[in-house]
Every structure is written in structure tokens, then in C-alpha cells.
Amino acid sequence: MTETVKGPASYFPSIEKKYGRSIAEWKSLIHASPLTKHMELVSWLKTEHGLGHGHANALVAHTLAEASGK
Length: 70
Description:
- There is one protein chain.
- The protein contains 4 helices and no strands.
- It has helices spanning about 10-20, 25-30, 40-50, 55-65.
- By secondary structure, the protein is mainly alpha-helical.
- Helix 3 (about 40-50) packs across helix 4.
């Protein structure tokens, strides 16, 4: 039996399908950005890359948590 994915990662399949980039690509873009604050990154993904708020928020939350070792 497969484990249900919870939290921000639960959005990943729909993000990849809707926007045509892998999660690794999105994370690379986030890491390459000079921005560091959560909402700055969310706003940037929304305005520069056309992501919806929930998808942008999930990517940023997961990426920042991963980077901080949480």
C-alpha cells in the first residue's frame, strides 16, 4: 500500500502537470533567486512565472523547509 503524500508535496503532481516544469526545476529557480523571504518568493513565482498562490506557496514552503533541514 502506498503512503499518502501530505503537506506542500501533495501539490507537486499538479504543479508539474499544469506548468510543464519538474519540481527540481522550480526548486532551482527558487534557490537561484536573490529573494529570501517566503512571501517575496511566492509573489515572484506568481508574477514572473504565472503560478497560482497555492502552488507558489507550496513550492516555496517545501523548498525553504528543505534548505533549513526541517
